[in-house]
Design brief:
about 425 residues, alpha+beta, Uridine Diphospho-n-acetylenolpyruvylglucosamine Reductase, domain 2, Vanillyl-alcohol Oxidase, Chain A, domain 3, five-stranded antiparallel sheet, 14 helices, globular, binds flavin-adenine dinucleotide
Length: about 425
Amino acid sequence: MAAWKNWSGSVSAAPSAVARPRTVAELQALIAGADRVRVTGAGHSFMPLCATDGLLLHLADMEGEITVCDDGLSAWVPAGWPIHRLTPELWKRGLSLANQGDIDKQAMAGALSTGTHGTGVTLGSISTQALAFRLILADGTRVECDAAIESDLFQAARVGLGMLGVMEQVKLALVPAYRLRETLRPAPLSEILADWDTLTARHRHVEFFVFPYADRALMKILDPVDAGDDPPAADLESGVMQVVSDTAATFPFLAPTLQRLLTRAMSPATRAAPAYRIFPSERDTLFEEMEYEIPTAAGPDALRAAIAEVRRRRLPVIFPFEFRTVAGDDIWLSPMHAGPCISISFHQYAKMDWKTPFAAVEPVFAAHGGRPHWAKRHTRTSADVLRLYPQAETWGAVRRRVDPAGKFLNPHLRELFAFSL
Ligand SMILES: Cc1cc2nc3c(=O)[nH]c(=O)nc-3n(C[C@H](O)[C@H](O)[C@H](O)COP(=O)(O)OP(=O)(O)OC[C@H]3O[C@@H](n4cnc5c(N)ncnc54)[C@H](O)[C@@H]3O)c2cc1C
């Protein structure tokens, strides 16, 4: 038995075997020969998606290469490679991902299997960037699927949590390489929410972080910029200190931690570089996270109500809410399938109680029409999935067809997707 833990340390497992195949033939033989299989990327999911007592696969060592397709704007890439390995290689070929999330540690397959996203009203999740997959199915066979060939399998696997098969290669839609300028700007929360539509229309990527006991938030704005365009200086200090002191006024014992976290998170204030270097931030303080994707119109109210709930209960939460936008899509199990969303993340320091605050805020998100990020803490049930996802049964039929014995399930997935058994 080997030990396995997720990034935050909240999920552990004892797989009967752990394998790091290097070739497709090895991967096929491993899958065909096992009773129960889960595949993990960087283990950054907060829910027990990868936990197994069977075979746990890591695909980061798979041999392979990036092959740019004839159209020059798409490429086949090894699905198990981390995003931070792929993006500089794409840059060398004059290409970028259209959008990325807060970090780039995830395996490409891990990120897209869960609908991982960044921010931008015109930009969908990473799953929307997938054009085709090469999957190893439960019996070890290798299948290529896209919108035309084996289209049901392709649609199901776009957000499939590794339940359809193991993704060995993915074909990604890409854009010409671009640079981004990042500007961090503190502002009153009420002002940001009042200007939100203008802000999101004016800037390609806008998001903000707000501490539950502060009335000011920190905006992060990213815009495409030409090489050599020097970023203007910004005076962040007063806004930062305001946020720190508002929060520390409520929890004085947290002041030093807050100052350390903020200083680390907010330096430098403005910078410009290739997009793949601007998107990811350092996340070296462990936290636990809940995130709901909420229909755009209800987003601001959902945030205000969640903050009010934390304050009403005097919950000791020292991490901020994160507020982002994601475009709608047509993916069966995507939380964004019904239209554009506001994504609200609620974080708690990993060593503090996260269950109580998350239990307090989850009903608020749900009451505002939210659907949970599959990889982040939630307590939705199989009945909720059926209610929230009109295509859930269609997805379930594909899952049942390609993996009738449930080789790729674990107890969490068996329960959450019980309708597909
Ligand atoms: C610090 C931090 C920052 C984050 N930032 C963001 C963010 O900005 N936006 C956002 O939306 N999410 C974010 N997340 C969530 C994260 O993107 C997801 O949990 C993502 O799935 C993690 O990728 P991973 O490679 O670690 O996958 P894992 O957690 O290892 O696996 C996730 C799922 O993908 C499946 N999978 C992995 N590899 C394969 C494969 N080869 N074939 C088939 N299925 C596979 C697994 O079986 C599992 O179901 C963040 C998480 C952390 C810890």
